[in-house]
Design goal:
The chain contains ten helices and 14 strands. The model has no long low-confidence stretch (mean pLDDT about 95). About 30% of the residues lie in helices and about 30% in strands. With about 325 residues, the protein is α+β, with helices and mostly antiparallel strands. It starts with 5 loop residues before the first strand and ends with a helix. A hairpin with a 2-residue loop joins strand 10 and strand 11. The protein folds into two domains: about 160 residues, Aminopeptidase; about 130 residues, Gcn5-related N-acetyltransferase (GNAT) (Aminopeptidase), CATH 3.40.630.
């Protein structure tokens, strides 16, 4: 008997725990969305399901619109799929049903190397939505391609290699794979004394770090100068990929480049000890990232609009005008 796709909506990730969801990276796990719920986010999980297979669009409501359920710590946003799911038939049912729940849906931090941006755009257009797609950010990555750390370092810009030769002896580096409250307190103190903006949700970030430590994915480094912590970095290693989540150094420590020395130590660890195939430096086009990484990927925003809604007419009109001008 042919199964019928069932569409449902949920406000807690607990409702989805009975299926075998596959997770590609730290921001596509049920645990990640549980952390967002604990931080006060009000989710709307749009689910299409046939028996033991399913697909989810993790969303949240902002006024009269829906948007991707994410926050500034996440590198990407994507749909969730069960491990055995193949094809997009169920996925394509969601935009049709969502037309009765919102006139506008905004998706942010959407990658396309896995096809999700194209998949979203196609599915929503096919269901009668107007879709505006914009490139909004970039993601620096490194494919290790079997190199040792020494091989990789030999290919870095001369300025980086010179800095490491001159400054490595000026700081002491310690690395750990276990969360330590004292280390994290040092990180928070360094961050507060750095050039970085104020943290968006430090409590959520700490809970995430603790959870990654419990799962064996936590990598953390501190650089000290004369015994004083001056730089700290939080990475994770997950499924052959190392993710660089947070890094900071004290402004006063710049003359001895502790951030560069610490970054090199963590690169060496994840390449030679963890044996990762990919290193992901998150979003943002900070110039220093190009010294360490070799490729750039685009991150997109997709704004999906119901054309019959008067609320959307100004946005659609501006988009049409921009297209005409081009």
């Amino acid at each position: 008997m042919q199964q019928v796709t069932a569409i449902s909506y949920h406000n807690t990730i607990k409702d989805l725990q009975d299926l075998d969801w596959q997770a590609e990276g730290p921001f596509a796990r049920l645990e990640w969305f549980r952390l967002l719920e604990q931080s006060g986010t009000a989710p709307v999980y749009a689910v299409a399901r046939e028996g033991d297979e399913g697909v989810v669009l993790p969303l949240c409501r902002r006024g009269t619109r829906l948007e991707a359920l994410t926050n500034w710590y996440a590198f990407t946003w994507s749909d969730l799929r069960t491990s055995g799911m193949s094809g997009d038939a169920m996925f394509e049912q969601l935009p049709r049903d969502l037309a009765g729940h919102a006139a506008r849906i905004d998706f942010a931090k959407v990658p396309d190397e896995n096809g999700i941006a194209d998949r979203l755009e196609s599915a929503f257009r096919g269901a009668g939505w107007k879709v505006l797609r914009f490139a909004t950010d970039i993601n620096h990555i490194l494919r290790v391609n079997g190199r040792s750390y020494a091989d990789y370092l030999a290919e870095r810009p001369g300025a980086v290699r010179t800095t490491l030769k001159r400054k490595a002896s000026k700081v002491e580096v310690s690395l750990t794979t276990l969360f330590c409250a004292e280390d994290w307190a040092d990180y928070e103190d360094i961050y507060a004394d750095s050039w970085k903006p104020e943290e968006g949700d430090p409590a959520l970030l700490r809970r995430f770090a603790e959870a990654e430590s419990a799962a064996g994915r936590f990598r953390f480094g501190i650089a000290r100068h004369n015994g004083t912590p001056v730089a700290a970095q939080f990475w994770t290693v997950d499924g052959g990929t190392a993710y660089i989540h947070k890094l900071a150094h004290r402004i006063s420590s710049r003359p001895f480049s502790p951030g560069t020395v610490l970054t090199a130590a963590l690169f060496e660890h994840v390449i030679d000890t963890d044996g990762v195939a990919l290193i992901d430096f998150g979003t943002g086009d900070d110039p220093y990232k190009a010294d360490w990484m070799e490729e750039v990927r685009t991150r997109f925003q997709l704004t999906c609009l119901r054309p019959w809604s008067p609320r959307n007419w100004p946005t659609l009109g501006k988009a049409a005008l921009r297209k005409l001008v081009r």
